[in-house]
TrEMBL record, chains A, B:
Organism in which the protein naturally occurs: Vannielia litorea
Cofactor(s) required, per the database record: FAD
PROSITE patterns in alphabetical order: FAD_PCMH
UniProt-listed Pfam families: FAD-oxidase_C, FAD_binding_4
Family: Belongs to the FAD-binding oxidoreductase/transferase type 4 family.
Record has Transcription regulation as a keyword: no
GO biological process, one term: respiratory electron transport chain
Name of protein: FAD/FMN-containing dehydrogenase
Sections of the chain in a coiled coil: none
Gene3D superfamilies: 3.30.465.10, 3.30.70.2190, 3.30.70.2740, Uridine Diphospho-n-acetylenolpyruvylglucosamine Reductase, domain 2, Vanillyl-alcohol Oxidase, Chain A, domain 4
Keywords, comma-separated and alphabetical: FAD, Flavoprotein
Amino acid sequence: MLNDATPEIVNRFRGNLPEGVVREVAQRYLEEPRDRLTGRAGAVLAPATVEEVSAVLRLASEARVGVVPYGGGTGLVGGQLAPEGPVPLVLSLERMKAVRGIWPDEGVMTVEAGAILADVQRVAEEHDRLFPLSLASEGSARIGGLLGTNAGGVNVLRYGNARELCLGVEAVLADGRVMRGLKRLRKDNTGYDLRNLLIGSEGTLGVVTAASLRLFPRPESRAAAVLVVESPEAALRLLGQAQAVAGPALSAFELIAGQGPRFLAEHMPQVRLPFAEIPEWCVLIELGCSAGQDADALMEALFAEAYEAGLVRDGVVAASEAQRAELWAMRESLPEGNRKVGSILSNDISLPLSAVPEFIARAGEAIGKAGDFRINCFGHMGDGNLHYNVFPVAGKARGDYPADTSDRLKELVNQLLAELEGSFSAEHGLGRAKVEDLVRWGDPVRIEMMRAIKKTLDPLGILNPGAIFRIE
Amino acid sequence: MLNDATPEIVNRFRGNLPEGVVREVAQRYLEEPRDRLTGRAGAVLAPATVEEVSAVLRLASEARVGVVPYGGGTGLVGGQLAPEGPVPLVLSLERMKAVRGIWPDEGVMTVEAGAILADVQRVAEEHDRLFPLSLASEGSARIGGLLGTNAGGVNVLRYGNARELCLGVEAVLADGRVMRGLKRLRKDNTGYDLRNLLIGSEGTLGVVTAASLRLFPRPESRAAAVLVVESPEAALRLLGQAQAVAGPALSAFELIAGQGPRFLAEHMPQVRLPFAEIPEWCVLIELGCSAGQDADALMEALFAEAYEAGLVRDGVVAASEAQRAELWAMRESLPEGNRKVGSILSNDISLPLSAVPEFIARAGEAIGKAGDFRINCFGHMGDGNLHYNVFPVAGKARGDYPADTSDRLKELVNQLLAELEGSFSAEHGLGRAKVEDLVRWGDPVRIEMMRAIKKTLDPLGILNPGAIFRIE
């Protein structure tokens, strides 16, 4: 059992660490974007070097206090704060944000874990390169947290998840040992894949302090369009056609149900919608072309072919960079629109691609039978990843429904996911919100393996206690 | 300490397993392509189902005998045979080669571990899809071994290593437990990345019995060319230009030193060379284009631009599919040519891309100072992966050099790799040949983590004893 991070223990840290590392607990370290969980912390520790991170974790092991690694605080499953168990310390990487090196010709950049995603994108761009990881919270999210959760976002279809964008990591283990793995190699088969074990472990196996990231040539031309489709089935067929026509130039394929734009029209009228009448289903497509191709011409060919095949009924092809940005602003505003309405249940799920239409049909039917709700289903269809959220009907609020509504709906959704071989966590991770889902729906042997690895790498259980696994 | 797989123990397996599983040890299970190591085995076990693999490993745990997982036997570092330690059993996956499912529209195929790579490629092609993993031994190598070693090959530049081509695995652990992870999802953040931990673990953590593999649209057009360059430096600049011009259409970029074709001319005259005079350096480039592009036109544009920039002095662009195959046949014959000459030292190494020319220059210089040798340096330059092999001078044989020559040269190469932040194992793995290299050159904390994971997942040490780690 861990100890509370009492004032006495915090004082011990203060006495053993350089000035400026041990800090008061500002409120923001105890909050998360959805306001569902409230954290606690004895202190915030903000080390400036990997040696200081190592010292922090050695001290925490000695004192047997939990340590919650903290990036940008944008996680949606509570991985960054601890509402339960002994009071921990928060370990913020915010002071470690240096670019340690950039090799544009190699397509590699080494940055510290506290670097903010938007800054990393900017540095890459200054060197005429693209760092393709992109998501709504990129102005706050930090590299360490993005790797800790194996973040996804809108460009996974072409460039992969955070995992695929990382060539190497430097990380500090629970006892303070430093794993030096900042290789910038495309191929390195020298034993177990510890990099990928740390990536996505949500700070429970080690604290990533720096990473070598992959950079790509910037597309020479880009095009975006919102195309109206009849159904998720038609969207899936359009995806196949887009892949055939555009190949790897297809960088995003986002499904948007009409409910999302309707929420925006009602609650965020400042967001411009690209249609006179909101369609029941549409997709946002982006193409990024290299020198030999013309993105606009490719998009028009795609549109024409899809229209002829009866897959697309209508559409808006962005005619300028400003219009392209506008289409994306609509897409990126959907989560905020949802928050303004207030969901009863939000899901970050994935499915085998061909099962996406069936899931949407059957989940909608099951939820319809369960009561009166509104569903907003949108997400990265190219990756089989849906954000499938359930809301009160117009005029009602969350509190107007029985207290167990959320659990009942979640059970419906997860049952269906299990049947269709999907996943109850696609890109956000487990954090603390989905600990019980793992126990309920995960493969038992996989869970045993995870527990064994956790126990051997963090025998005291000080790293992010309560995330991924229950506090015991 | 493990027990020998004695006839008594083998009999116990025979009594507890279905007929046909326990087999005599044919000679081929004890040999490897380079004839440097000779294996031993009490029996070959060839289970036909995952349940039988599970039964085999339960029995092996009870009997405390080692089990060496065996795929196609094409590994180049001795991961598939055991020359030392207690006599083990060989576990061959050869009877498990079913295609469990294929979803061409999703780009997914689930196959058993014993499926041969060329067969998997063919099935994908029959469904108008590409499985891009491709290497010289694809006619024999099996999926389980390719994943166990995280195999590379010629298309990594565009499609990634075996790891990136796998969405999920089913595997049996040392004690017979079955991990069911055959998901066919693009995104699945439900805990630790056990898939990638098993991939590349060379059968020391579990036995992969099936995998979900990624399929891609087949290129609509392809083009290949051999271009003559002045130096590795020029080749590197050409790579940058090719990436800028062709973007993701660039699927292979292979560096070839003149020594390789000279060996072919001497020892394999049946292999057609694409030049009148063998150049000191050339590169083999392949483009694979989707519908919107014309591969031939793109290749010509690339050639013209590179010629104008002074990067390319001469070249042969394949004018037909037959000529394209001929260029690749030359490339794929290089390892066989090497074997006919008989190397003193062969290396499978990787470097940060920008360090490749420096490595080639400095390694050549150091080896030149160490004695009279011939160097054949070729490989996947697009991945920073070189096969850097050292041979006797003409008229001499390996035996004409002092016995410690190979070790001395290896030391030179590995020193330089360490200095340039490269890797001593890029795509072949560690097997048994590089166990000491890991101890000598690996990050100590990384090795400790690997040992801890090995111990917790295979506490008796029965899985592939002697691979990756020394027998203790």
